[in-house]
Amino acid sequence: MNTSELQHYCSQFPGAEHQLVGPPGNVLVYGVGDKQFAYFKLSEPEKWRFSIRTTPERFLELTDIPGIKPARYMGRFHWVTIVDVRSMPPDYLQELVRWSYNKALASLSKARQAQLLRPSA
Predict the structure, then answer these.
(1) I want to staple 78 with a disulfide (CB 3.0 to 4.6 A). Which of 49, 59, 65, 95 is the partner?
(2) Considering the entire predicted model, what is its pTM?
(3) Is 33 left (phi over 0), alpha (psi -120 to 50) or beta?
(4) HEC string of the chain?
(5) How far apart are CA 20 and CA 115, in angstroms?
(6) Could you report the per-residue pLDDT of 99-113, keeping only the tens digit for each?
(7) Quick count: other Cβ atoms within 10 Å of Cβ 76?
(8) Is the link from the previous residue into 45 a cis peptide, with omega within 30 of 0?
(9) What is the end-to-end Cα distance of the chain in Å, rounded?
(10) What backbone torsions phi and psi does residue 68 show, to the nearest 5 degrees?
(11) What digits encode the pLDDT tens for the residues 44-89?
């Protein structure tokens, strides 16, 4: 799975939105409601590095894999950065993104969740 395919995958979730955050961060943020679930770094030297939130257990597992490290500033909240998404098995990567999305969605109020998950007419 390349970065374009992963961006498309992140956009497919109900209520998912993306926002471009310019300098100094230069990131493409994916969120649901007002909660982030994934982001891509858009500037060098870290261009296209991808970050997601994980469970504490999976955080330890993932950060032992070469090419995956604690996300800068967000590692203490169990976010990891994947240096090259093409190096990850697509099914596993999709599972990680889906978990991060569900975690963000679950942190919203029940009313907001229902509003976001309601099919648009």
Answers:
(1) 59
(2) 0.90
(3) left
(4) CCHHHHHHHHHCCCCEEEEEECCCCCEEEEEECCEEEEEEECCCCCCCCEEEECCHHHHHHHHCCCCEEECCCCHHHCEEEECCHHHCCHHHHHHHHHHHHHHHHHCCCHHHHHHHHCCCC
(5) 24
(6) 999 999 999 999 999
(7) 9
(8) yes
(9) 32
(10) -125, 130
(11) 888 889 999 999 999 999 999 999 999 987 878 899 999 999 999 9
Instruction: Annotate 43-66 with b (16+ C-beta within 10 A) or e (fewer).
Output: eeeeebbbbbbbeeeebeebbeee
Could you tell me the two tokens for 63? 């950060």
Q: Which two tokens stand for residue 38?
A: 């994934």
Tokens of 9: 């995958």
Tokens 């858009």 -> residue: 42
